[in-house]
Each structure stands twice: as structure tokens, then as C-alpha cells.
Amino acid sequence: DVVYREVTADHRLFSRRLLTKTNRLPRWAEVVFPANMSRSVYIVEDSIVDPVAKSLTTFTWNLNHTTLMSVEERCVFRESADQPASTSIRREAWVSSGVYGLSRPIQEFGLARFKSNQTKAMKGLEHALSNLHGEAAQRPPRDPVKEPSAAKAKEAAKTLASTAPVTPATATKPQQFI
């Protein structure tokens, strides 16, 4: 859901979205962490579209489960300097954990999962772009089914997002970079 959007004085489009992501915990984490722990992660995404620089920059970070694992990502999409008709992507991620004694394995797991998910994300992006350019048959739009609990989750996440900082604070956390 878009929770905020504005066009700035320098003609950039700034948007803040609230996303919900679910991922199955690995088996080792199911043993360590309680079964009633929420499997949904609320994520804030700030995006800036700059028509002058011809770029799209996104910043994402999780709002909950931050003691277990905090993941922050920055992506910059812009016209490729080498191939003007192509788009280049610079993607960076920071993973940290505050779990005493397990922070290093949790960070390594987070980085491995992040890398794995990026491969899938790139395939999805390429598929979507090929559909936009008519290179593949168009699929009919899906009709999303919303469960009653989704509305509750959305409201809880909006409350969390309203208290989120404008930019992620990472200065006090040990981080791993990719």
C-alpha cells in the first residue's frame, strides 16, 4: 500500500509504501525461535523517481523482527552508460542481527537468502519487462483474494510504518555487505 506520495520542489516523485513479506523459517530457526512468532515481516520502501537524472532509487528495510535480523537494501536503476537503451541496476544490502551468540550465522543466512531471492527477482523483472515490450504473450490480470486477517495485518503495519524513521538508521549495528 502507498502510505505517502509527493512531488518535491526539484520535480522528483517520492513515495513510501508498506509491504508485507512471508518467508518460511529454515529448520534450524524453527527449533530456536518460538512457534507462535509471526511469519509476516512488515517492510517500508521509499522510492525516488528522478526524471532529470533518469533514475529510480529505492530504499527498503524491515520494521519488525529487527532483533532477529535487520535487512536494509538500496537499489539504483538508471540508464546504462555502456548501452543507452538498457538499464543498469546497482543493488546493495546490509544485514545485521542482535541475537547474542547467533548473530554471525543469522547474518550469513540472511545474506545467502537475499542473494537467492535476487536471482528470482531478476527473472521476474525480466519477465515483466518482456511483457511490457510485447515480447511475450500477455497474461490476464489476476484477481487478488484478500483474507480477513490481511486487513488487520495491513493496519498493524501502517501503525508501525508511521513511526518508522525517514531513512534507515544503521550506525549502531554491525553489518555485512554484499
Mean pLDDT: 78
Helix tally? 3
Order of helices and strands: EEHEEEEHHE
Question: How much of the sequence is in beta strands?
Answer: 25-35%
Shape: globular
Low-pLDDT segments, ≥5 res: 136-150, 164-174
Largest sheet: 7 strands, antiparallel
The gyration radius over C-alpha positions equals 18 Å
Would you give an account of this structure?
It is a single chain. This protein is an alpha+beta fold. The protein is built from three helices and seven strands. The protein has a seven-stranded antiparallel sheet. Strand 3 and strand 4 (55-62) form a beta hairpin. The radius of gyration is 18 Å and the shape is globular. The two termini are 28 Å apart. The relative contact order is 0.15.
Key words describing this protein structure:
7 strands, globular
Task: Please provide a brief summary of the model.
This protein is α+β, with helices and mostly antiparallel strands and 178 residues long.
List the helices and strands and how they pair.
Layout: E1 2-7, E2 13-22, H1 27-32, E3 40-50, E4 55-62, E5 70-79, E6 87-96, H2 103-132, H3 148-162, E7 176-177
Antiparallel strand pairs: 1-2, 2-3, 3-4, 4-5, 5-6, 6-7
